[in-house]
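Lecture notes, structural biology module. Today: joint structure prediction for complexes of two components.
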Amino acid sequence: MPSATAPPDTGSAGCVLDRDGMGALVRELRARGRTVIGPTVRDGAIVLAELESAEELPYGWGVELEGGHYRLRRRADAAAFAHSAGPQSWKNFLHPERVRQWTADRGPDGELTVRAEPPAAASFAFLGVRPCDLRAIQIQDRVMIGGPHRDDAYRERRTGAFLVVVECTEPGATCFCVSMGTGPAAQPGYDLALTEVLDETGHRFWARAGTARGAEVLDSLPRRPADEATQDRARRGVAEAAGRMGRTMPPVDLRDLLADTLEARRWDDVAARCLTCGNCTMACPTCFCTTSEDITDLTGDHAERWRRWESCYDLDFTHLPGGSVRTSARSRYRQWLTHKLGTWWDQFDSSGCVGCGRCIVWCPVAIDITEEAHALHQESLADRAGAADGAP
Amino acid sequence: MPEAHRPRLGVFKFASCDGCQLTLLDCEDELLPLAGEVEIAHFLEASGDVRPGPYDLSLVEGSVSTPEHLERVRRIRADSRHLVTIGACATAGGVQALRNAADAAEFRAVVYAAPEYIDSLATSTPISAHVPVDFELRGCPIDRGQLLEVITAFLAGRRPDIPNHSVCFACKRRGTVCLPVAHGTPCLGPVTHAGCGALCPAYGRGCYGCFGPSASTNMPAMIPLLRTEGMADEDVRRLLHTFNVRDFAAIEPAGEPAAGEGG
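The predicted structure, tokenised, for the full assembly:
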């Protein structure tokens, strides 16, 4: 597993941008024709939305997170990235909730014309991708374009996206990227990596390029060489963040744990609390399931196929002739968790969880993936101890 | 080529406010094309030109609330190839079903100056309690887009794409920040049937369940959440017991203060 605390060696010490430099970065990316998406305050949350200027970043805002609880908090300082995962993730842009796939028209002579939807040209720049979310993007890459069935529209959006990772220096109470090996330091895959530093010498960002196009953007910005103090302070901020994770996963092979606990009593316990509302799956940055939607117009001569987000909590998700396969909340929660932590490995050679904590925060009844994993672990230990004691 | 038979559409009303059939008139851009595809044979809110059945598709609004309704609903069913109920009254009995668990005679006495002229049943019940229905479209009122989807699906002979999941799906897809989580606002979204496009939460108001329960609810977990968000038992009961009182009351856990009495 790659180290979660050491920044990757970019081959250079990088440079330092001040707050004006951040403004210039947004201007430069926009001048290059990119739609810059980044964090901004809206409706009592730090959401991801198009930024016209870096001044729309959430300077001075932090968040208070707990299970089923999210509140904006004013910070004593002016940090722009001292917040962890919000209500959305980058999948909202790379894997949009509803996409047209093809249209069909029937002509006067009855002849059918079917047209595949041309991939929409998209040129995003994502500003403020957290390391856990960079991993989430890579996990969705494997799903959408890394196997035998490839989604060209996703590929178009993804390859066009310029990624500015901002390392995590302020993890939330629901974060556990260290347990999942995805943060808080940036791992390869970014165009630019930034680390925010605020101290008596000022508010600045230690910047490194991860790609040639990243270096080209960086070279066009007002900047200064990275001094030792800034680098040290940045590295220390990230290292300290690793020690302030609000949550952990049990220190076991989660894939084995889930495979061994399919009949655990804990599933009944969590099913009694689960609303089956589907929020966890839609807030999750890696959940990718979709369903097809066929629409016709009133004449019946025009039809369209759309793909939209679907969730394993939806009864219709497993609807077959005869009804739904997973009718109980128990079976649906178990499907989600075993896939996320266990069978994702069998399917895609990785975990489906990056430790961002969104499913914990945005669950209205505060069901906590780490608490459930710990409970399954404890139940399995207790059962094993009981078996060793010869108990029934 | 001989002109194809245009399907005949009927729109009928029982105990209701007319808001759901008004949704059909609100389909401004689609109304003329629709009138080209179907023969609107019975739609009193739009036209006095009433033609007898049979109807290929009947849209039925309102609940069965009077002795006369009992007979009329059977007649309409017999006249209809497909019968689709529209709105909370027709699918759940509506707000007037509050009388089901109360003293209907007392209600009548309070509301009407001369209650002896009122001939109503002791209960308000959905159309499906009396005749088989082919599809139930929910909402108070129904959603315009969903109504068009049901009609176009009928015309194409396909199943309407009307998801049975929660309003949370719509909020997340729309990008609305979760009201209970980020603001502590009580919201019935997690147990309410989608279809409105999560309209209220998009404007900062908690869902009040006007589409009725979703296909998968957990009321024993939902009701304590509403209390955590500061609702008193009486408020919880009022929230659940409005337009879809019959359907929510049916899934409330026994012993909950929310359960039981209507009003």
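Point to remember: Chain A has 13 helices and 16 strands.
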